[in-house]
Amino acid sequence: MASKLLNYCHLQALCSRHVFSPRLPHPTRAALTLLHFRPFSDAPSSPPPEKPHSYNNTRNDIGMEKGPIQTPSSLKELELVKFASIAETWWDPEGPFKPLHVMNPTRLAFIRSTLCRHFRKDPNSSRPFEGLKIVDVGCGGGILSEPLARMGAAVMGVDAVEKNIKIARLHADLDPVTSTIEYCCTTAERLVEEERKFDAVISLEVIEHVADPAEFCKSLAALTIPDGATVISTINRSMRAYATAIIGAEYILHWLPKGTHQWSSFLTPEELVLILERANITVKEMAGFVYNPFTRRWSLSDDISVNFISFGTKKVQ
Amino acid sequence: MVGMALACSLASMPLTKHLNVAIIDSNPALGSRVRLKKGDPPDARVSTVTPATISLFKDVGAWQYIEQNRHAYFHKMQVWDYTGLGYTRYNARDINKEVLGCVVENKVLHDSLLSCIETTDFQKTFHPSRLTSMTLHQSSSSMGMDSTLLKTTSSSLGHLAKLELSDGKSIFAKLVVGADGGKSRVRELAGFKTTGWNYSQNAVICTVEHSVENRCAWQRFLPAGPIALLPMGNNFSNIVWTMNPKEAGNRKLMNEDDFVKDTNAALDYGYGPHPKSSLLEMGDMFSWLRGDVTLSATEGFEVPPKVVKLASERMVFPLSLKHANDYASKRVVLIGDAAHTVHPLAGQGVNMGFGDALALSRVIAEGIAVGIDIGEVTMLKKYEEERKRTNIMMMAILDGFQKAYSVDFGPLNILRAAVFHGANYISPLKRNIISYASGDQRLPLFS
Q1: A93 to chain B: closest CA residue
Q2: Contacts of A285 by beta carbon, 8 Å cutoff, 6+ apart
Q3: What is the pTM of this model?
Q4: I need a surface site. Which of A26, B146, B322, B386 has the fewest CB within 10 A?
Q5: Looking at the predicted structure, is the pLDDT value of residue B325 above 60?
Q6: What kind of fold does domain A2-314 have according to CATH?
Q7: What is the helix (H) or strand (E) element at residue A311, kind and residue range?
Q8: Which chain B residues have a beta carbon less than 8 Å from that of A173?
C-alpha cells in the first residue's frame, strides 16, 4: 500500500514541476473511482467527469462533484422527517461523527484565542465575537458554525453538499441563538464572484479534499477583508500522519470510513504557508492537535506532525 | 445549599454571569427573607466545612456573611473508641494551617449564599414550589405545545428540557441541575439508577450547651456507632450520635436530663475506659520518627467538656450510602447529595457536594468559552469523570471506616487501636490524613 502511494507520488512529481501545480487526471480508473468515493453523501458515486479537472473545479468538504445543484421543489413533511432523522447522526455525539465532536472544543479554543488577540476582543466575555462576520467554508452539519454563533459572531456556513446544509439549518433552528446562521449551498469561488467579504474565513479539515489547494487558498483570501483572519486546519503529509490519521483512524480505530483521506492530498505546514503567502496571507500562528488515548482528549500542542491548524492575516495592500 | 453554591459560583465568574438561572426550592426560608439575628437560638442542623470549602466560599464572596453570624473554627480534633486502647489527636499546626475546619449552622450557610447572590446583578428567579414533572427528550414531531409563560415559537423550544412545577408554571431550560438532596426528584425523573445500601443506624442530632467554650472536635466510636461533639461557638456544640434505630427512637423521646446524662456517659466514662496518654512508652517505639513528630502527638488525652443542657430539639435521621450510577445525561446533571449520600462520621458529605458545585461551574465556564450548548452531554461527562473518581474514593474510605467500627471483636479491636496509634504517631500518615480530610489533597495516599 505504502509503496503504491510512493510510486504514485513519484509519478506526480514527474508529471509536474512544482508541487503546487494542478493535479493531473489520475492514470488509472481505479484511482479515479477512489477519488470520487464520498462516504458521507448518500447519492450514488457517479462516474468521473469526461473532461479533465479544470482549475476551478474545487471540491469543498466531502461533497459531490460540481454540476447543477439539485434542489427539491418543495419541502414536504416526509422530507422534513427524513432529514430530521439523519440530522441526528451528524449531531449524535456517539454517532459516526464522534471524532469531530470530540476534537471540536480544542479547535474552538485555538480559534478563540487567536481571533480575540487579533481583533482585540475581551477573552473573558461570553460573546467575544460580537460584531465579527465569519464564514465557515465546508461547514458540513454546522458543528463549527454553531459554537461560533454562540460566541456572538454573524456566521455564514457554506457547503457544496445540499444535504449537509439542510441538516445544518434544521439543527441550528432549534436554538434561537444559532438560528441566525446563514447557510448556503455554494462554493468559495461562487462567493468570491458575489464579492462577499468577511472579517474571518475559517476552513477546517477541507483543504485536504480539494483538487487545487493553491486556488482554494486564493479564493479564501479573496473572501477575507484586508487585515482579516484566515484559519485553515488540515493534516500534515508526514509518515506519522499516514500511520495515525489513515491507518490508525480509518483501519484500526474505525473513526473514519476507509478512503476518507488520501495521503497524497495532505499538505505539509511549509507548503501551506507558501501557498497562503502567494495568496497574500501571512501565517502568524500554527498549532498542532494531539490526542491522548488515556484521557481520550485532544489538546493543543507544538507538535504539528499530524493534525495542525494555522492562523493567518490578509496583507493590507 | 449546594445548589445555591453553584449559583453563586456561576455569578462570580465573568464567563457565566450572563446566564439566566431559575432556582426552584420549596424551602420557606427562601420566600420570606427573615434576616438571621445573632441572638437566635442555635439550630440542630449544622455542617462542618473543610478549608477547601471555606476557600470556595471566600472566592464567591459569601464567607464574609458567615463571619457575621454564629460560626466556630476549630483547630484540634480527638478521635478514640470505647475500648480505651488508643486515641488520635489532630492539630491544624501539623500541616501548618490555622484551622481544621469550621462548624456552621445550615441556615447560616444558606443565608450567606443567598445574600451573596442578591448583591450581584445575576439574573435569577426564585420559584418557591416543587418539581412535579420533567420532559427531557422531545422529538421534533411532538412540537406544537406551548407554555403559559413563553411566547417564542414552540419549535425553537422543542429540544430544551421542560419542567413543570407544583404551582402550575412551566419552565424551559438548557440545563437542569439536580441539587435536591438524597431523595432527589430530579434524579428520579431523569431515570438515573443508584447503588447503595441502608446502614442499620440512625443519627440523633441536637445542639447542647457547655459551661466552658469548646474549641475542639471530638469523636468517640461506641459499639453501636460514633458520637461526635462539634463546637459551634458561644459555648454551644452540636451532637451527632449514630446508633441503632430502636435506641435512636428512645433517645429522642426520653426526657432532657436523662439524655444529657447519657450523652456525658457516652463521651466520657461510659462503655469503656479512657485511653492512656501513653506518650512515653509508645513514643519510644516510634522514636526513629521522632525528628518529625507532630505537635498533636505530644498532647495527651483530654476528656471532652461536660454537656450542661440541651439547647435544641432532637432530630433523628436514617443513614444510608447511596451513589448515582451516572451524574449526567443530556440536559441533566446531579450535584451534592442527589448524586451521593454518605455516613456523617467524617463530616465530608456536604463538602463533597460543594466540590461538585465548584467543578460543575468550572466545566460550564469552559464550555461557554468555546461556545458549546451547556446541555451538551460530552461537556457534562467531563464533570462526571472528574468528580466520580474523587467521590467514589471518599465514599469507599468512609464506608470502610463504618464497617470497621461496627464490629466488636477482640483482634479487630486491637487492630483498630494499632491504627489509632499509627495515625497518631506516624507523622507523614497523620499529615496525609489531615490534608485529605481538609480537602487540600485529592487522593488519600499518593500525592
Answers
A1: B378
A2: A114, A310, A311
A3: 0.80
A4: B146
A5: yes
A6: Rossmann fold (3.40.50)
A7: strand A307-314
A8: 155-156
